[in-house]
Write a structure and sequence with these properties.
It is built from 14 helices and 13 strands. By secondary structure, the protein is an alpha/beta fold. It has a seven-stranded parallel β-sheet with strand order 3-2-1-4-5-6-7.
Length: about 375
């Protein structure tokens, strides 16, 4: 018997990686997938038909009318009646991807359905941190208000049959708040195909420090400014730093262009990004926002063949301290960068790292969902 998922998917930023590859593995396991997704002013995506049998697209109700509601804007703007009608066409289980997509979770028409919610964060904490990162008072007010609304709206999870948290830390949060709902930790999914073999990459591993991410996100810009202000000036001039990602602002581009040993790779293709990640000697992964899981950490550990230098806030769960170098203070980060820059990473250590991640559950297993 085929298992049909109606997946309301939030396809933005890093979360798309988890959604896409989760659907890919489910389909490979024999599931029939019906994907419902809201699009963001872009055309339909043919690649989604590789991971779903049917894809339905919906437009969001954006604008000020959706702002004036006790429900969070990110939830209330996703309230398509057509979506509800299609969900009622059969009795298949429904997988909601993120709290954003749960507008119909409590709907009486879905009372007797199996409803599972995939949580990528404790959302109100995430939005609160976004507010702290904003400079504009208008944006601060939006994120703080949205965080308040999300905190109260989170009780809608009581209507779920299961909560699939992305980290053990988040799973503890949901278990304590909603003990009547079964909560499991289901680590994120990712592309399991290696870019190169370990031996090939070790031979042509380049000497540069890589920071990558969405360069239009305030949190990432804050991290880059910290790197440029506090770390780069203390490094040897021959230590090259590469910053890569999409949509860097004009100010950031101009600033990087004035620093001799720092280069910017703007809007790289997926192939280019894979190559940058695979060949970097050090992955510098810092954050000032301790929420959810940083998917670029998993991506760098799985796809990269260099050292990973992180701060404590990047670590989602116990166990990552065995596969990363952790440094929180500025002086410790500079010292670690200098040491790691001239230290090769042996193939044996890389193979052990991938084995350790597999044991931690980062193995694209969908047994929990299928069971």
């Amino acid at each position: 018997m085929l298992l049909v998922f109606k997946c309301h998917s939030l396809l933005i930023m890093g979360g798309v990686i988890d959604v896409y590859y989760k659907l890919k593995v489910l389909k490979e396991a024999g599931c029939s997938i019906v994907l419902h997704t809201y699009r963001y002013g872009v055309d339909e995506q043919p690649d989604l038909l590789k991971v779903a049998d049917t894809v339905y697209y919906y437009e969001r109700f954006t604008g000020w009318r959706s702002m004036f509601s006790f429900l969070p804007y990110v939830v209330y703007s996703r309230r398509s009646k057509l979506l509800l009608e299609r969900l009622c066409e059969d009795n298949s289980p429904i997988l909601f991807e993120g709290l954003h997509t749960c507008y119909f979770l409590s709907n009486p028409l879905l009372r007797d359905r199996q409803k599972w919610v995939r949580m990528h964060n404790v959302e109100h904490d995430y939005y609160h941190f976004l507010g702290k990162s904003c400079v504009s008072w208008y944006e601060k007010c939006y994120y703080y208000l949205e965080a308040w609304k999300l905190k109260h709206y989170e009780r809608v999870l009581l209507y779920a049959d299961k909560i699939l948290a992305i980290t053990n830390t988040d799973a503890v949060h949901f278990t304590q708040k909603y003990p009547s709902v079964l909560t499991y930790c289901l680590p994120c999914f990712f592309d399991s195909i290696s870019v190169k073999t370990v031996t090939d990459v070790i031979q042509d591993n380049e000497k540069y420090i890589l920071y990558h991410g969405n360069l239009s996100v305030l949190e990432n810009v804050r991290v880059i400014n910290y790197i440029l202000d506090n770390l780069v000036p203390k490094l040897d001039i021959d230590m090259q730093v590469v910053i890569a990602g999409k949509n860097p602002g004009k100010h950031l581009q101009e600033r990087i262009s004035r620093i001799p040993n720092v280069s910017l790779v703007a809007n790289p293709s997926q192939k280019e990004m894979n190559s940058l990640v695979a060949s970097a000697h050090i992955h510098l992964l810092l954050t000032f926002q301790n929420t959810g899981i940083k998917l670029k950490l998993i991506y760098s550990l799985m796809k990269g063949y260099g050292h990973c230098l992180v701060n404590s806030m990047m670590i989602p769960d116990p166990g990552f301290e065995e596969v990363c170098t952790i440094a929180d203070r500025q002086e410790a980060q500079i010292m670690a960068l200098r040491e790691l820059y001239y230290t090769p990473l042996m193939p044996e250590a890389l193979q052990w790292r991938q084995q350790a991640l597999t044991k931690m559950g980062y193995n694209n297993q969908v047994t929990l969902i299928l069971h």
